[in-house]
Design brief:
The chain contains 13 helices and 7 strands. It is α/β, with parallel strands linked by helices. Bound molecules: S-adenosylmethionine (SAM).
């Protein structure tokens, strides 16, 4: 079994587990290869491990096979409430959202997540029908520009969309490498070799569209007050500003509403980020931002 993803801010995440409960019920909403769950399982009586991608779920199951207290669920995290035992609803003590995709997806999945990938433009995490191929080859120029703008915050989204649509007139764009090549050659020469590759945000935008990532996150947040116990905590780890903004706005608006299911109070006033040492040891951790909230009333 080849594990490629290093869990981000593991010690910090675990330190936020509340220690006032006797029978600890935990949800790992984004199991991945099970890096965080390996420790969560040791510190919980019951752990629900949610993962939408069947392939990575199998890897995690093998890795964690010695823990008998884990319930594996192949679903999206907006469905937590439909998949935990009824008596656990309102009694969950800790939930972790380690958002986005795993290094596994970039390095091993061969689904076109990475722009050096010769594999076909797929990008599905699972439990969805649309592929990256469909978005790139079938969306209208306007719809494609909207995806690039809304999910990649790309300023020249209309121009890039026009370039993609022109390229596909000659031949369907089938692989991640082909898409990368089109974006690279549509970018001004002086911007081709900047600190991030010019295709990075395009790939992020297409992936978010294919997997409907932001809408699913918004739906998941709605149910959190119902799922958590009073004094229960939720940790959100996000890797780009679109996700972090959704979490931040939700926590702000929840504070103001008179939600009878519970109100969240921030545990950390400021965002927590990885230490320099962690970033050095595990560079993909560099963009992580953590927000922690506790259900108080
Ligand atoms: C950053 S990785 C988690 C890594 C994990 N904490 C570890 O240390 O191994 C995020 C995982 O969440 C999964 N995922 C993404 N969106 C999801 C969703 N809506 N519902 C459930 N799982 C999701 C991805 O497939 C990926 O495996």
């Amino acid at each position: 079994m080849n594990i490629v993803h290093t869990p981000v801010m593991l010690n910090e995440v675990i330190s936020f587990m509340p220690n006032t409960f006797e029978n600890i019920i935990t949800v790992d909403a984004t199991l991945g290869e099970g890096g965080h769950s390996e420790v969560l399982a040791q510190k919980s009586n019951t752990l629900y491990a949610i993962e939408r991608d069947k392939e990575i779920l199998t890897i995690a199951k093998n890795r964690l096979s010695k823990y008998s207290n884990i319930n594996y669920i192949n679903t999206t995290y907006d469905k937590i409430i439909d998949n935990i035992k009824e008596e656990h609803i309102g009694h969950v003590n800790f939930i972790l959202f380690d958002l986005g995709v795993s290094l596994f997806h970039f390095k091993s999945a061969n689904r076109g997540f990475s722009f050096n990938d010769e594999s076909s433009l797929d990008m599905r995490l699972g439990l969805n029908d649309k592929t990256a191929f469909d978005v790139i080859n079938k969306y209208s120029e306007k719809d494609l520009a909207n995806v690039l703008y809304n999910y990649g915050e790309i300023k020249n989204s209309r121009y890039l969309s026009e370039c993609i649509v022109n390229a596909r007139k000659t031949k369907e764009i089938s692989t991640a490498k082909e898409l990368e090549n089109i974006i690279f050659h549509s970018t001004k020469k002086e911007k081709r070799y900047g600190s991030i590759h010019p295709a990075t945000l395009v790939f992020q935008a297409i992936r978010i569209e294919v997997n409907d990532e932001l809408n699913i996150l918004k739906k998941a947040l709605e149910n959190l007050p119902k799922i958590l116990d009073f004094g229960g905590r939720v940790v959100f780890m996000s890797y780009h500003s679109l996700e972090d903004r959704i979490v931040k706005q939700y926590l702000k608006s929840n504070e103001k509403t008179k939600n009878s299911d519970g109100i969240f109070k921030l545990v950390n006033k400021h965002i927590i980020t990885p230490s320099e040492a962690e970033i050095k040891n595990n560079p993909p951790s560099r963009s992580a931002k953590v927000r922690v909230a506790e259900k108080v009333v």
